[in-house]
Amino acid sequence: MGLKSKIILLAVAPLIVATAIIIYLSLQSARELAAEELAIYEYNLVNAKEKSLKSHVKIALSAISPVLENDQLDDAIAQAEVKRILAGLRYDDDGYFFAYEMSGVNLVHPTQPDFIGKNLWSFQDRSGNYLIQGLINAAQAGGGFHRYIWEKPPLMRLEDKLSYAVAIDRWDWMMGTGLYLDDIYDELAKTKATMNDNIQGSFFIVIIVAVITVIFVILLGLVINLHEHKLADSRLNAVAQRFMRLQVSERRGFSRELHDGINQSLVSCKFRIELAGNKLRRNDDHEVVQEELLKASDLISQTINEVRQISHNLRPTLLDDLGLDTAIRSLIDQFSERTGINVEYHSDVTDEVADEVETSIYRLTQESLTNIEKHAEASVVSLILLQKNQKIEFECRDNGKGISDNPEPGIGFINMRERLELIGGDFHIASQKDQGTWVYAAFPI
């Protein structure tokens, strides 16, 4: 996997993970909220059923209360009349009333008359619920609800049923009615299905938005990466071209120095030696011959100095002989001796650095001091070399007159900037009028 792919993956992976977590948490939150809403909805529906059952029982009690309150009627006649009234009461499509003795004997059951007269105390629904006992207990407690499973007419299918029962104290009876809960379950199932559809729809929309976002981020990253790559390539090509021109210029200068300086000196030296030889063959005066040889010796010494200067320009010998710190101190001493400007120098570079970095630091120091000497009119210079974060940081400050608010570096600094870019370094220069100049560079170790 290439570096670009790794960078894009590093940028996209956290986005995908965060999106997945957010989607999961949102989905869980939506499901929990839906479950809470369903529970509240079910409670409200059941509560409405309970209120309806109480209302129906209240109506039935109102219907039989004249009989119950009539003390003139015989109990047998009154009981028969109450049974008749309860058996004839209906509401909705399947609503009816039932009555039992507290012992569990059925007295009224309009939908299943074969239960009448039977003791159903031990009767259980399919879940093992003693439903008659539960209704009697609820009635004896002053009236209450009981849930169980019962056959629903007309198909007589087993359905959940909620009943409300009260006691008829005059004869120690239990009377009540019930409503089936299948319509509640149907309504809850429809509501749950609607909620699930909404949640799934929202989930798919979020997934689509997330996918589109990730694709957009990837495409944007590729576009930016491609743009930056083109900019970097063009910048690198420009730097390489400038550096090639710099090399050509340096080689031309080196060639001119060899041709115009060293070559001419060696030719002159050759002529002097040949002239001395001719004079010896003519038996000229020895002093005349010696004078020619002395001139040839002076030319050789001059040539040696020029070779040393060229060698120093290519790679200062001090760097190889004494190291970077001593070489820079030598530059500073020479600068202070020439200009009388005090230089405050500090270095904490301890690691061994590459030759090209040493040479670049030395040349930058040389260029900075040369510019200060020519242009700054400074009295104090601060030169610092710090080693940190796998870099050597170079800072040179002076208290001179400065360049301008927006300094344009000269050819020397331009060459240094290009050298630094080629070795992966960084270069900045800042200056303000009458506030000195600041040169900063960072060299990779």
Structure commentary:
With 445 residues, the chain is an alpha+beta fold. It folds into three domains: 3-180, PAS domain (Beta-Lactamase, 2-Layer Sandwich); 188-307, no CATH class; 319-444, Heat Shock Protein 90 (2-Layer Sandwich), CATH 3.30.565.10. Helix content is 62%, strand content 17%. The protein contains nine helices and ten strands. The strands form two sheets. Strands 2-1-5-4-3 form a five-stranded antiparallel sheet. A five-stranded mixed sheet has the order 6-7-8-10-9, covered by helices on one side. α1 packs antiparallel against α4. It is rod-shaped, with a radius of gyration of 54 Å. The mean pLDDT is 84. It is found in: Cell membrane. The chain crosses the membrane at residues 7-27, 203-226. Pfam families: HATPase_c (PF02518), HisKA_3 (PF07730), sCache_2 (PF17200). It is a multi-pass membrane protein. It comes from Marinomonas ushuaiensis DSM 15871.
